[in-house]
Amino acid sequence: MISIYYKALKKIIHEADIKVFSDLPIDEVLWIDLNNPSLKEKKAVESFIGSNLTSRQKAEEIESSSRYSETENMVIANSNFLIQGEDSFTYEPVSFILKDSILISMRNADLKVFDESSRKFQINYKAFPTGYHIMVALLETRIDLDADMVESIAREISQISKRLSLNTDIDEEIILTINQLQENTMLMRENIIDKQRVLSGIMKSERFPSDITPKLTIMIKDVGSLINHTDFSFERLEYLQNTFLGLINIEQNKIIKIFTVASVVFMPPTLIASMYGMNFKIMPELSWVGGYPFAVGLMITSSILTLYMFRRRKWL
User: pTM, whole model, 2 decimals?
Assistant: First the structure.
């Protein structure tokens, strides 16, 4: 699918047909958005701008040099955009190409940031006179959405922390939830650092208009704050994980302690029973009238004395 945004009649026109390229002056086009484009659409855009588009393989590279680069007549930036699922995040690589002040964006999935930026762009088109401004606006919206995701993770961590405070039963589900949140936090941090690298490349560039610089400065500060927030969230998750594992160990020790006490309490009666169960011919207790009650009483007394000793030493 293709979306073409161009200036006409003092407003921004949105078209979704490559046929418009035949009658459209190149200096009026601001943004061409390619969402899972067909080969025909890619060829039409390449013919219109006079350059080849970045392949998806290059967009998925993670080397520092591939995040942002400039050629003689183009600016190329690749960035991963997070898609929030029910329990986890996934990456969608997005490529940005700037040529002759036209922004070409390439992706293979629907992303909320593009829909929101498109609405802002058409409502206040004067704030986006070039493709450079649109690209920065897309990154700004992406950073805002990343901040919302970071806050969402922080809320989930707070809920888990409350469960700890309420002394609820600890089960495997909580540990798995913490592990998943740790994975999401790491992915979020990688994603934010990815944006930081792209913004650093833009700040060093001499091609971007000077009126964008103040906004870029604020965006880099926001990114730095988000990185610090994700670091704090990860440390908090590690604390909760260690706390829950410690509580699990305490519960296990309590169970082992119960079995240990039970086995020790029954050891003296077992010894006495085994002694009186011996088949000796001469055993004085056999001729006693109270021999059996004596043996049973001795076993009960030994158990009570053992429990008393445990209580006195505060082992129970």
Answer: 0.74
